[in-house]
Every structure is written in C-alpha cells, then in structure tokens.
Design brief:
Blueprint lengths: L2 E3 L6 E4 L5 H9 L5 E5 L16 E5 L11 E7 L13 E6 L15 E4 L12 E7 L13 E6 L15 E4 L10 E4 L3 H14 L9 E5 L13
Parallel strand pairs: 2-3, 3-4, 4-5, 5-6, 6-7, 7-8, 8-9, 9-10
Antiparallel strand pairs: 1-2, 10-12, 11-12
Organism: Pseudonocardia yuanmonensis
InterPro entries: Glu_synth_asu_C_sf, Glu_synth_lsu_3
Protein name: Protein glxC
Length: about 230
C-alpha cells in the first residue's frame, strides 16, 4: 500500500485511488502512525472498519456501507456523508459524520460516541446496546427500535414509530415526533437528564439548550407476560 508521512506532525496519507480498502484496513489494524488521512474514498464500503487502537482517521469524502464499523477506541471522522451502518457494532471511541448518514447508523453499538452533524435515515440506533448517538438534524422512522441501552439525542425531528419495543435506552428529541412505537412513552425531564444531555451536546459540539428537548423511554409494559397475548 502507499502511505506517506510528510513530517512528524502530518498524518499518514492513504489515497484510495491507488490503494485498496483491504490494504488500508490492514494498516489501520496494525498502525505505524497515530493519525491517518484517507483521500478519494469515493463511497467505498467498510472504510476504517475494525479499528482497535486509539488512532485518528480522517476520511476526506463520502463513505459507503459500514464505515468505522466495530470501532474500538479510534477517533474516526467522515468529512462527508456515510452509507448504511456507519459505526455499526462500535465498542468505544468517537465516530463523527460531518454530513448525513443513511439507515441503521450505530446499529447494535455497545459504546462510544457517534455524532452525525446532518440527518440520519431510518432505523438510527436500532438495537443500540450502550452507545451514545447525537444527531444534529432529523432521524427517519423506526429509529431506536429495540434500543437496549445508551442515549440517542435528536436535535431535529424524529420519524414514525420512535423507540418501538424499546428497553432502557434514553431518547431526547428537540423537535417533533411523528409517532411513538410500541411501549415507548414520553417521560419526565428531570435535572439529571438535563445535565447528561448537556454533556452529550457539549461532546458533540452542538450549542442547543437541554431545556428545549423532551425525553422518551420504555413504559416497561412489554417486560411482563399477559395471558391476552397467547393464542
């Protein structure tokens, strides 16, 4: 692969016009530098997937499916839009998308922080298991479906069936909600929630006032067996 370091301070530059994603990821899995700049991604899939060390990766352009998937400690920024499943199954670290994200952003992720400065499509945070997701714009329908743990912050509007079959994740929405899914209800916004929301907004670099948000979560009705559900 072709990775050049211009100086001790400059990132290692990887040009995907001449280097394969497989070669890039092999380098990132056993890095010889602490900071990489990826050029000409051209919507390639699985860019910077499987990073497991605290390195910094800047992707200059749009990324395809599963960018930064399985991230475990890296700081990865997509300077553009990201396709389906960005930061899927992330364990720790920071993933930032400066544009929009397609469906299933942060799916099944266990930890870390995912920031989408634009909007996200449907199923954002599906089956999230501890990740924090902050979206600067809107999210699509069926977001936070079966969300088990973590926090989802939406600075715009939320689509239909938000939080369907939710477990213990906390959802904060600044704008309107088209509809709530099964077992998802609006909940009281206490001081502790405003404090944690303020921390998440600060970490994401967004200036909104936590007082502008409403909180949603599980009514816990689906936790219990009822005879009326038998056939």
């Amino acid at each position: 692969m072709t990775a050049t370091v211009e100086s001790t301070q400059a990132p290692a530059v990887v040009d995907l016009a001449t280097t394969s994603v497989r070669e890039l990821n092999a380098e990132l899995h056993a890095p010889k530098a602490t900071h990489y700049a990826v050029h000409h991604p051209q919507g390639a899939h699985a860019i910077a997937a499987g990073v497991a060390t605290p390195i910094t990766v800047d992707v200059h352009g749009h990324a395809g499916y599963y960018a930064a998937g399985m991230n475990d400690g890296g700081t990865i920024t997509v300077h553009g839009n990201a396709g389906t499943g960005v930061a899927e199954n992330m364990m720790s670290g920071l993933v930032r998308v400066t544009g929009d994200a397609s469906q299933s952003a942060g799916a099944t992720a266990h930890g870390g922080l995912l920031v989408i400065e634009g909007s996200a499509s449907m199923r954002c945070g599906i089956s999230m298991k501890g990740v924090d997701i902050v979206v600067g714009g809107d999210i699509g329908p069926m977001s936070a479906f079966m969300a088990q743990a973590g926090r989802l912050v939406v600075c715009g509007d939320a689509g239909a069936d938000l939080g369907d079959s939710i477990y213990e994740a906390r959802l904060y929405v600044r704008g309107s909600v088209a509809s709530l899914g099964a077992d998802c209800i609006e909940k009281e916004m206490r001081d502790e929630h405003r404090a944690e929301l303020g921390e998440l907004l600060a970490a994401a670099g967004l200036p909104h006032d936590p007082a502008e948000f409403r909180r949603y979560g599980s009514a816990r009705r689906l936790y219990h067996f009822t005879s009326g559900n038998t056939y």
